[in-house]
Design a protein that fits this description.
disordered N terminus; four-stranded mixed sheet; Immunoglobulin-like; mainly beta; 1 helix; 2 domains
Length: 338
């Protein structure tokens, strides 16, 4: 009898472990971008099938579309080698307007059908800054994007920061701003901020030296390699699962405020809701405290599905939802079932 109980316990432990390893956290990649940066997204499309890529912006004030074009390699071939109904590429160019957060969502569906019939999805999460912090070593900026280098400087010692660019004809624009210390101590250090941008692409090296003007040798030297490019391509958020796995996400929810998380699934032929459960209960018994909620989704068949989350009061307009957890007003995920 004891042996049977022991075997049963081992079986249950293995089952729980197997179930835990079959849970895959929904992936949310956030791209750090700078104001003025140019983003390019290139996707394959085949209009002969009727399916066309369509995009939407969760925060239209964050970025704007500045260009769209079709790239068709088939047209470059001689007429006898061109293939009827061959796929081509569509390219969208966006400009970052202001700091903030937002998401670009692409859906592939036939224009005469409902967007809920989409069969493919792309999600690009963005967090935009007025300027990007540069680090020692290799850095990348887009044309007109501003990079920032922040250094400590103490003029009371006679030391100050100077810089040299390895290219005398460099198009880099560099401005210096001093942020004085709030400290009341005599001789306290200040912050020195260098803002760097360029109107032309290229690769440049900037060497910063911390020294006294009457001395030859610096006591500190920092080197920054900056590659200025025409544009960058953001990384998409994508979660891959197999047919025996669950996709899940854990979110904070406080229903006493009236706000709860609500989800929508596009392409339920691929993915469907499994369950919602409370996994932690802060200060259980305390009025007004929230909880960690776990949403799980299970695969139905191979393909791609899209999940959106909104945090709102059920009696209010979902379009005015407020997310107190994520960078974005709403949260979006793409799940691939293999």
């Amino acid at each position: 009898m004891k042996k049977n109980i022991f075997v049963t316990i081992i079986f249950l432990m293995l089952f729980v472990f197997s179930f835990a390893t079959n849970n895959v956290l929904l992936e949310s990649v956030v791209n750090d971008v700078g104001v003025g940066e140019t983003l390019v997204i290139k996707l394959e499309e085949n209009g002969s099938t009727g399916f066309i890529w369509n995009y939407s912006l969760s925060n239209p004030d964050l970025i704007k579309l500045i260009g769209e074009k079709t790239i068709n390699p088939n047209e470059e071939k001689s007429p006898e080698k061109q293939m009827s109904g061959a796929p081509y590429f569509k390219e969208w160019t966006f400009k970052v307007n202001k700091s903030g957060e937002g998401t670009i969502i692409f859906s592939l569906y036939r224009p005469w059908e409902n967007p809920d019939t989409a069969i493919d999805f792309k999600v690009y999460n963005l967090k935009a800054y007025d300027s990007m912090n540069l680090k020692e070593g290799q850095n990348t900026l887009s044309i007109d994007e501003v990079g920032m280098i922040e250094l400590d400087e103490n003029p009371s010692t006679g030391y100050s920061w100077t810089y040299n660019i390895d290219d005398s004809e460099s198009p880099l624009n560099i401005s210096k701003k001093i942020v004085k210390s709030d400290s009341k101590l005599l001789g306290a250090s200040n912050k020195v901020i260098f803002e760097i941008s360029s109107s032309k692409s290229g690769t440049y090296k900037i060497i910063f030296e911390y020294k006294r003007p009457w001395e030859d040798d610096p006591i500190k030297t920092f080197e920054y390699d900056i590659e200025v490019v025409d544009s960058v391509s953001p990384e998409e958020s994508l979660t891959e699962i197999t047919k025996d796995q669950l996709a899940y996400i854990e979110l904070y929810e406080n229903p006493t405020t009236g706000y709860t998380w609500n989800y929508e699934i596009t392409n339920k032929k691929v993915l469907e809701f499994y369950k919602k459960e409370i996994i932690t209960d802060e200060n259980s018994g305390t009025i007004g405290m929230g909880s960690e909620i776990k949403f799980s989704f299970e695969p139905v068949s191979e393909g791609k599905a899209f999940i959106s989350f909104k945090y709102y009061r059920n009696w209010e307009n979902p379009e005015k939802s407020t997310n107190i957890i994520s960078f974005n007003t709403d949260m979006f995920f793409v799940v691939v079932v293999k």
